[in-house]
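Quick question, first post here. What does this chain look like in 3D?
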Amino acid sequence: MKCIVTPSHIGPAMKIAASALRDAFQTPPSSPSPSLLVHMFSNGGSSSLTNLYEQYAATAGPDDDKRLPSHVSIFDSSPTLFHIPHAVAFGSVGLSSPFQRLIAAPFLYAYAIFWAACMFLGVIHNSLEDWYKSHNNHPANSTELRRVYIYSPADTIVAYRDVESHAKEAKAKGFSVVLEKYEGSAHVAHVRKDESRYWQIVKKTWEG
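> Answer (accepted):
Ran it through. C-alpha cells below.
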C-alpha cells in the first residue's frame, strides 16, 4: 500500500539496487542472450521496476548505458490501471470474514471514489498510470528481449483486460510478447493453480 500512497519512497531503494545491478552485470546491453530475469508481482513489482528504469538511467556515468542489461520480463498479475472495484478488493485484503468485508465495504468504496476524484482533479498523481506506461517505453526499455504476462480473469485486484490491452500495445511497439491466461486463479496465486505450468512458463521465457 505504501508504494501507492507514497511512491516517492521507492526511488531511494531502487537507487541502491541500480548501483548493485550495474556492478554485477557487465554484459553489453545489446547482448542477444539475457543476463537478467525480471520477475515482478502485482503493482508493487510494477512500481519497483519503473523506479529501477529511472534510477538505472539517472545513476549512469558518461560511458554507461542508461538501459538495463539485456533481460526478459515476467509480469505476474500486472500491470493495471485504477478502477474503483479493484481498489476496494485491494483494500479488503486481510479481512477474513464476510461480515468484516460487509462492514468495511461502504468505507472502502467511499475512499476509492474520493481517491479517483482526486486523481481526476489532479490533486493526487496517478502513479498506477505512470507505471503502466513505463513498461512499454521502447527507447528506455529496448534491451528487453521478450516478456510474458501471467494473469487471470478471476483476479479481483488487477483488471485482466488492462493486462491484455497492455500486451497488445507492447506488441504493436515491437516488444516480443506472450500471454499466459490462467482460469480461476486469484491475484498472484497462479503458481498455486498449476505449479508445473507456471515454472515451464518461467523456463521458456528465460531460455527463449
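Residues 2-81+126-207 form a domain with the Rossmann fold fold (CATH 3.40.50.1820).
The chain has nine helices and four strands.
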